[in-house]
């Protein structure tokens, strides 16, 4: 809603006044671009999106209580033996990967907001205080792969998570030796994760994004997906996708409060158990010194002269790295006075992805004191000081000691814009035509930029393999009982670029049985979703079969009459969908709005009921009339506990080359404590309770933007990519209006670049990593607006 104000003259004057304020206060308008580029080159850590942060809250354990595995127990017993203490019994150790279990102490991050730092941090652990070894370096174990170089890509997040941690943790769980630098058969490729989470550009990625790929889709080996400079290429080979599923990550968590004794103790316990972990940092801001000789001990002698980071004065150079060990005996002279002062002993062992020419053949040290916001050493550095481990935390992920998927979906598709494809799996009883439970693919869900599947501009065929096992295990399904197994593929934008579905089959990985879909392929879709299903039960045989109830693909030309006498209601924004058993249209969320509704395809946005049933025009793969009309079933009445999908698109009013400009807008249903975040295309999908009046109240918000309040009178697809909800920038202070208070906030950070302490991302409307006149122009355009 715009306040009453005199037209363009007032707006122009406002713009001039704002510009004069900034130009007089800040004579240097633009920051040096080379500073930003140098800080980012060959690094590439991207801040997690709101969606990735929400995923982390729901899946990552806050680690406070840690048990010992056999390796950890042996290391602790060595320390106890040296101190002439009784040894712990071997049977007290837990299996590798089970050191951190979900319990009242180790709960998910979403249950730990604001939790006390020290509560239960080490309670009920096996070991006593002082039992941890003084020195651990897991890079010396057979499980750790050789140091390699991410050059020339900004792939540090994938290098740290996929190559180092996933390779190492899988080797730890399965007993592999990864020291042979020429053997890539069991080393995992950073290109596998990076190309799927970088949005089709070499702009970096997040740790959480790589974790999601490995938990949902596993990890492809370096041999199957060699690392090179091609950052857009996906594998289009079914064998690579199927093999990667054998190496799915298991659990994930975070060790927080590393700037406290308990937090650091938890990190050291995981390292004692043989773990290695990922962390974020601003490496360009690191300050190095050399390790000195503590004359009171000989335990540090072999490390004297090595390089160590002892503090950081900013966040420049966002980078993901790997912590592989620690040493309590190392002395880092923080205040450079030549005296071993309190707080100067101890450092973490770090592995980098810049090859063996960096520091100590690719390794370095980080002083424990560098983890703190304020140095614990008298006279320690403090100007512009930040914690070297961003957020004083490190992330871990575990591998499955063995894994064989139970049931796979293999399908071949063709599309020139892979970021428009959305894929999910599901199952139901054979009497239903919609899934009881669904599982969304992470990698194949609006990812990868507007490119073909091989990373070029060409529309090419690609065969993907996805795993039903998580659905089966989570819902205790016996696959010997017949179920209806769904593959749903959507094209999220009606733009004339068709997505072709070329085949679909089920593969039973336990028996080798293959069941081919009998749908008529190819199926072509544009701006709609397509459901295909196969009825299947594990027969215990290995014979290749074909699903027996056949289906006919519905196409657009040459109509065939289909009688619909019992049809009473159609959900808002529906589209004809194809299954492998009957010609039963099913609802989809991807239909875009059109001015003139087409029967059984779309409805006008304000309607909640379908028109009086009339014969419907469809066609089959051949231009002849269908001999026996197929009836469309009566819609099942909904109950108070059912949910409906609200989907749509959000767009920033800012013109920006940054592909994340429409990412992470929060879409919330008022009064329901239910919200989601948009992806990079601005797309959102949120579950809402069934409303008799089909009225929903949505709030769309993001830092630096005015909140948009919407009253929605229908379910389903609310708009299209071509007509999104436009959100205005300028509300920096979040008071639901754009006024001089926001101008003052921008003045505080004007001409600041990302990494500066005063830099405020909410003022950087175009996300070019500097607050400058471009941002002033945007706030001038929206000045005096209030939330609507």
Q: Please report the number of helical segments.
A: 12
Structural class: alpha+beta
Q: Helix share of residues?
A: 10-25%
User: Mind summarizing the main beta sheet?
Assistant: 7 strands, mixed
Query: Distance between the terminal alpha carbons, to the nearest Å?
Result: 5 Å
Whole-angstrom Rg: 29 Å
By DSSP, the count of extended strands is 32
In the predicted model, the low-confidence regions spanning at least 5 consecutive residues are: 1-10, 19-41, 115-123, 548-641
The oligomerization state is single chain
The portion of residues forming beta strands comes to 15-25%
Average pLDDT rating: 82
Task: Please state the overall shape, judged from the principal axes of the Cα atoms.
Answer: globular
Question: What topology emerges from the helices and strands here?
Answer:
Blueprint: H1 7-25, H2 33-40, H3 50-59, E1 60-62, H4 70-82, E2 135-137, H5 156-174, H6 190-197, H7 207-217, H8 238-244, E3 249-255, H9 261-272, E4 277-282, E5 286-290, E6 307-312, E7 318-331, E8 345-351, E9 363-367, E10 394-399, E11 407-415, E12 421-428, E13 437-445, E14 460-467, H10 469-474, E15 483-491, E16 499-508, E17 514-516, E18 523-525, E19 529-536, E20 545-546, E21 555-562, E22 616-619, E23 643-652, E24 666-669, E25 674-677, E26 683-689, E27 696-701, E28 704-705, E29 708-712, E30 716-717, E31 725-727, E32 729-731, H11 740-749, H12 773-782
Parallel strand pairs: 1-3, 6-9, 17-20, 23-30, 23-31
Antiparallel strand pairs: 2-7, 3-10, 4-7, 5-6, 7-8, 8-9, 11-14, 11-16, 12-13, 12-15, 15-19, 16-17, 16-18, 21-22, 23-26, 24-25, 24-27, 27-29, 28-32
């Amino acid at each position: 809603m715009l306040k009453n104000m005199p037209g363009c003259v007032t707006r122009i004057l406002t713009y001039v006044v704002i510009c004069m304020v900034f130009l007089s206060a800040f004579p240097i308008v633009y920051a040096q671009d080379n500073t930003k580029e140098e800080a980012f080159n060959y690094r590439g850590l991207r801040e997690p999106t709101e969606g990735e942060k929400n995923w982390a809250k729901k899946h990552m354990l806050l680690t406070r209580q840690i048990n010992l595995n056999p390796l950890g127990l042996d290391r602790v017993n060595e320390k106890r033996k040296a101190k002439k203490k009784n040894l712990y019994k071997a049977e007290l150790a837990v299996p590798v990967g089970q050191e951190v279990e979900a319990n009242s102490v180790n709960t998910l991050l979403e249950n730990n907001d604001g939790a006390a730092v020290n509560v239960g941090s080490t309670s009920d652990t096996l070991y006593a205080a002082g039992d941890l070894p003084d020195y651990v370096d897991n890079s010396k174990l057979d499980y750790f792969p050789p140091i390699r170089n991410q050059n020339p890509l900004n792939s540090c997040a994938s290098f740290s998570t996929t190559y180092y941690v996933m390779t190492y943790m899988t080797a730890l769980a399965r007993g592999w030796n990864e020291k042979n630098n020429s053997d890539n058969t069991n080393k995992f490729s950073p290109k596998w994760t990076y190309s799927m989470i970088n949005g089709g550009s070499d702009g970096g990625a997040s740790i959480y994004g790589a974790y999601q790929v490995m938990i949902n889709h596993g990890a492809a080996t370096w041999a199957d997906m060699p690392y090179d400079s091609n950052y857009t290429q996906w594998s289009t080979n079914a064998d690579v996708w199927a093999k990667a599923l054998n190496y799915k990550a298991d659990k994930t968590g975070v060790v927080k409060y590393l700037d406290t004794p308990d937090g650091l103790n938890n990190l050291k316990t995981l390292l004692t158990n043989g773990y290695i972990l990922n962390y974020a940092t601003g490496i360009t801001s690191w300050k190095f010194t050399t390790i000195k000789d503590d004359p009171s001990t000989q335990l540090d002698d072999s490390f004297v002269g090595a390089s160590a980071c002892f503090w950081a004065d900013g966040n420049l150079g966002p980078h993901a790295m790997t912590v592989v060990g620690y040493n309590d005996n190392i002395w880092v002279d923080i205040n450079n006075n030549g005296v071993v002062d309190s707080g100067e002993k101890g450092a973490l062992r770090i592995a980098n992805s810049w090859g063996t020419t960096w520091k100590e053949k690719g390794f370095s040290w980080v002083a424990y004191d560098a983890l703190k916001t304020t140095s614990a050493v008298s006279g320690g550095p403090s100007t512009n000081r930040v914690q070297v481990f961003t957020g004083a935390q490190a992330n871990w992920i575990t591998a499955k000691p063995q894994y064989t998927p139970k049931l796979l979906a293999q399908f071949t598709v063709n599309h020139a814009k892979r970021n428009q494809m959305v894929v999910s799996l599901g199952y139901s009883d054979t009497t239903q035509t919609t899934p009881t439970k669904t599982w969304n693919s992470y990698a194949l869900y609006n990812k990868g930029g507007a490119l073909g599947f091989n990373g070029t501009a060409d529309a090419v065929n690609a065969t993907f393999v996805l795993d039903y096992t998580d659905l089966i295990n989570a819902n205790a399904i016996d696959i010997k009982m017949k179920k209806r197994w769904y593959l749903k593929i959507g094209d999220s934008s009606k733009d004339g670029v068709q997505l072709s579905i070329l085949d679909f089959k089920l593969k039973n990985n336990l028996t080798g049985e293959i069941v081919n879909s009998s749908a008529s392929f190819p199926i072509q879709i544009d701006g709609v979703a397509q459901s295909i299903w196969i009825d299947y039960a594990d027969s215990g045989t290995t014979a290749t079969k074909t699903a027996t109830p056949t289906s006919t693909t519905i196409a657009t030309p040459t109509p065939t009459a289909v009688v619909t006498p019992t049809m009473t209601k159609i959900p808002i924004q529906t589209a004809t969908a194809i299954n492998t058993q009957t010609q039963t249209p099913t609802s989809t969320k991807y239909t875009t709005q059109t001015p003139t509704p087409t029967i059984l395809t779309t409805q006008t946005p304000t309607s909640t009921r379908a028109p009086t049933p009339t014969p419907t025009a469809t066609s089959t793969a051949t231009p002849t009339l269908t001999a026996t009309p197929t009836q469309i079933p009566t819609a099942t009445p909904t109950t108070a506990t059912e949910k409906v999908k609200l989907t749509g698109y959000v767009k920033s009013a800012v013109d920006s080359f940054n592909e994340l400009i429409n990412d992470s807008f929060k879409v919330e249903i008022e009064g329901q404590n239910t919200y989601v975040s948009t992806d990079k295309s601005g797309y959102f999908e949120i579950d809402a309770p069934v409303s008799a009046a089909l009225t929903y109240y949505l709030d769309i918000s993001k830092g630096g933007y005015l909140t948009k309040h919407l009253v929605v009178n229908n379910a389903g697809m609310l708009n299209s990519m071509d007509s999104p909800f436009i959100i205005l920038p300028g509300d920096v202070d979040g008071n639901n209006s754009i006024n001089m208070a926001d101008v003052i906030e921008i003045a505080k950070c004007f001409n600041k670049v990302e990494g500066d302490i005063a830099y405020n991302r909410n003022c950087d409307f175009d996300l070019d990593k500097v607050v400058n006149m471009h941002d002033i122009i945007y706030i001038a355009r929206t000045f005096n607006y209030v939330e609507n």
